[in-house]
Write a structure and sequence with these properties.
The chain is α/β, with parallel strands linked by helices. The chain contains 13 helices and 13 strands. The chain folds into 2 domains: 188 residues, Rossmann fold, CATH 3.40.50.11340; 165 residues, Rossmann fold. The longest helix is centred in the C-terminal third of the chain and has 21 residues. The protein binds guanosine-5'-triphosphate (GTP) and 2-acetamido-2-deoxy-beta-D-glucopyranose (3 copies).
Length: 413
């Protein structure tokens, strides 16, 4: 117990506390959020843009990126489970993320910065007038808000908004910025025009990648390692139902992402075909690059024959009716089907990650045209070291004429 005696280590810890207080005051926090309708996998892409911006900002100051809690995503529709205020640590390995750029969870920000206050929100928007003279140029200006502001003032004069479901969060000042260009274009403004220690960029998807698929892009992407419990569940499933282990599949893995540098073609993959079949909104608007269920099954069967694989793992967001039809036409298929208890623990996001992890380890993969869910699987396989021919494949629409296959983006180490 605490006796009140003055021991040396008490003094030391007091000094350390003061020191930490001083240093943490020097930190500047960059927070961000994304347009509500955007899905999980596009949000992962926006993270890469923000990590780039923070790296640029850190050349002149101690900026830290605050991770926007997950939740209220349109696609996460499993009923009766709590799916807001989910910290990044439930889906990604924080130590891995931190090996790329300093990041903290939102609740850590609240604890460190003195409370649920954000000093300045900058809502990014396009220019009301569009591109002038049809000419592209990078620019940023404070402008009147184009859309209705999603923040409103409370009785004390603070702004209230969604703030990831943290109702107590308040903001001192909200302004709109018209911006067109890459993420780091915002750095001079954040350094010179803003004195706040906490700045949130809303609608962060407005700015583009600094350099898509460049070295910095890939460093950030490689640091986005899935949380260990999700990888383990995926591996257990592979071993149990797909006769697939890293050793047998010749997949070299390391907990430290900076040490993974696999040659393309070195990974063999588990003895199954991995399929990502995106349905729901992709079929509702009758896109010509998305197949009918029958068309997809025909392609899967021909691939199984060609690759001599007799097992197929299917990741899909298909509804129950389509699922039943799929199973009828393709009895050999396997899916990761969590129990309700598992789902409550993993959430829709965790299940999606396990699906992606299993697809990423298949000997051959085929995904859905322009689905960011499929794109993230491509990247994961690129990291693991698969031969590109086994990765950059997509289904074609039943009557699609030119069925262009996905682009191979090589890792820059
Ligand atoms: N478990 C699982 N969920 C999926 C699958 N396909 C889609 N989903 C769900 O539906 C969402 C699809 O949207 P995302 O791809 O994340 O979001 P998006 O940015 O809109 O991407 P696309 O619409 O696919 O380009 C995912 O986040 C999942 O929640 C799948 O194969 N398995
Ligand atoms: C930022 O400050 C500079 C110099 O004071 C000024 O010229 C510029 O217009 C400011 N930018 C914005 C977007 O307010
Ligand atoms: C709000 O922020 C803008 C942009 O930085 C600034 O011009 C304005 O003075 C701020 N308003 C208040 C009340 O602090
Ligand atoms: C699992 O794969 C190994 C080769 O990787 C093979 O020798 C073994 O027979 C397979 N087991 C089953 C049950 O298919």
């Amino acid at each position: 117990g605490h006796t009140g005696t003055w021991r040396p280590h008490t003094l030391l810890s007091l000094i350390l506390t003061c020191f930490k207080d001083i240093t943490s005051k020097l930190d500047q926090y960059l927070l961000y959020d994304v347009n509500p309708p955007e899905g999980f996998n596009l949000r992962r892409d926006v993270y890469i843009r923000m990590a780039s911006l923070v790296k640029t900002l850190r050349r002149h100051g101690d900026w830290v990126l605050v991770l926007p809690p997950w939740g209220r995503l349109y696609h996460w529709q499993s009923p009766d489970i709590h799916q807001t205020r989910i910290p990044w640590g439930e889906f990604f390995s924080l130590t891995s993320l931190q090996g790329n750029v300093p990041v903290i969870e939102y609740e850590e920000f609240i604890a460190e910065s003195g409370g649920p206050f954000i000093e300045q929100v900058l809502v990014l928007q396009n220019y009301a007038e569009g591109w002038t003279d049809g000419k592209w140029e990078e620019k940023v200006n404070e402008r009147p808000c184009v859309e209705r502001l999603m923040y409103s003032k409370d009785k004390q004069g603070y702004y209230r908004g969604w703030f990831w479901g943290y109702e107590e969060t308040r903001c001192v000042n909200v302004t709109c910025l018209s911006a067109q260009g890459h993420a780091s274009m915002l750095a001079p403004l954040l350094q010179n025009n803003i004195t706040s220690t906490s700045v949130m960029l809303d609608r962060a998807e407005t700015v583009l990648h600094d350099h898509y698929a460049g070295k910095d892009y890939w460093n950030t992407r490689r640091s986005m390692v899935f949380a260990k419990h999700l990888r383990l569940l995926g591996d257990e499933f592979r071993a149990k139902y797909l006769n697939s282990t890293d050793e047998q599949d010749q997949i070299v893995y390391n907990e430290d992402w900076t040490l993974i540098k696999n040659k393309l073609g070195s990974a063999r993959g588990g003895p199954y075909l991995g399929v990502h079949l995106r349905r729901k909104d992709f079929i509702w608007d009758h896109r010509e690059d998305v197949p009918s269920l029958k068309g997809a099954v025909k392609k899967i069967m021909s691939l199984m024959k060609k690759t001599k694989l007799d097992r197929v793992f299917v990741a899909t967001d298909a509804d129950d009716e389509e699922l039943a039809e799929l199973k009828r036409m393709l009895p050999e298929m396997t899916r990761f089907e969590p129990t309700w208890e598992d789902l409550e623990l993993l959430k829709d996001g965790g299940v999606a990650i396990i699906d992606q992890w299993i697809c990423a380890h298949a000997r051959f993969f085929i995904g859905t045209s322009v689905s960011t869910f499929s794109f993230r699987i491509h990247e994961e396989r690129e990291i693991l070291g698969f031969e590109p021919k086994t990765t950059y494949n997509r289904f074609c629409g039943d009557s699609e004429k030119e069925c262009e296959q996905p682009t191979h983006w090589k890792i820059v180490y």
